[in-house]
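sanity check this record:
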Amino acid sequence: MIKERPSDNFKTAITDPPYFSGCKTLLRKIIYSPFKVRIILGGRRSGKTSLLRAVEWNFLDFDLDRPIRAFPVFISLQVERPKGLDNLRYLLVARLREAIGRWRKVPGSGLREMYRQFLSQIKGGEVTVSFLQQLNIKLNITNPDYERQLNHDDFRQALLATIEELHEMGFEGICFLLDEAEFIVNQTWSNDAWGYIRGIKDTDTALKPFLGFVFSGYRALKEYHQKVGSPLVDIAEVSWLSPLSDFEISELISYRFKDEKVPSLPDRGINFICEWAGCHPYLTQQMLNRIFDFYIENKNLPSAKTLIDDLLEGHDHDFLRWWNFDQKTGEAEEDGRLSNEERNIYLKLVECRQSTDKNLAQMLNLSRQKVSDTLEVLLGTGVIQHDKNIKEYKVGARLFEEWIARQK
């Protein structure tokens, strides 16, 4: 196995810049307008966390020229699991102060080394406590639960003081990158949180120009704002992740073959990967990993049959979750599972290979809007592709399609 291969064999987010591919248009939008509220939607392992990490290292890269520079604060809400709005406010400030502490210890160096060192720095909670005490914000240290809470006035004071400090460091403001936002959606205080963020971005003239939020999620976040009409959506720009393009896949393949010192693939080999992985970022990386591992062990590339059989066995657990035979729904950790309706529409697309939402609606006797919404979800999962030029959808990830066929 290649020891230098980043991100736990690509089963976790990519944190090594050269290995990240795709999302260039969306990445550029976020970087050039960092103080908006954005919602990024996509299925399991579609690259949401990797995108937020890419936003983070792009903001920290002082060699990259851009009109506005925001200081990034990445927070996994599923890991932090805030207990309420006051606790969420505290966590935002705490992770902000810790990130600034880490950044101050990173030497000036190339992007890859800078970001690696930034992520490896460890700053404890005392950094936050010390900062708040300097602002005369009192904490009840005898009650740990209370200690990790901030009311609105203290939160605002802490942000304003930090923004002043960031201006001196060459940053114009703060962009919070909030991963796995489904956690908040499933809390009783979710409406309070969304309303609070909207209030800041709507009416707080001191904070609004210097504060941005990027939320990532999938089905629970999408269905929450559809059912509840959350005020957050009124001020947010919603973007869906989709499979990589053929060109992006070719770029990624070329880089990884060169980086891992494996003989380059002919064009038909690149086309084979695009077809079977369907330009799905996770499946593509895993397919490349298997090719490289096989080459290291055998000094030659695997046959198509060997590669496909091995990948189908290796991804059996992933595909079981995606296809959702048990029809489990409603739980955040199962948010990537397909519903019965989504499976039916996917199977119809497999049958006809390529179709418009209008034709699929007629074939399935469903409303066009329902089919369009479902195709949007399937596209976010990465198992289908959309040809925008002819406005048709087609099956992607032939590997997933083959796995389904073998279940019969």
Notes: The longest strand covers residues 70-76. The first helix runs from residue 7 to 10. The beta strands are 37-41, 70-76, 173-179, 211-217, 236-240, 354-355, 384-387, 392-395.
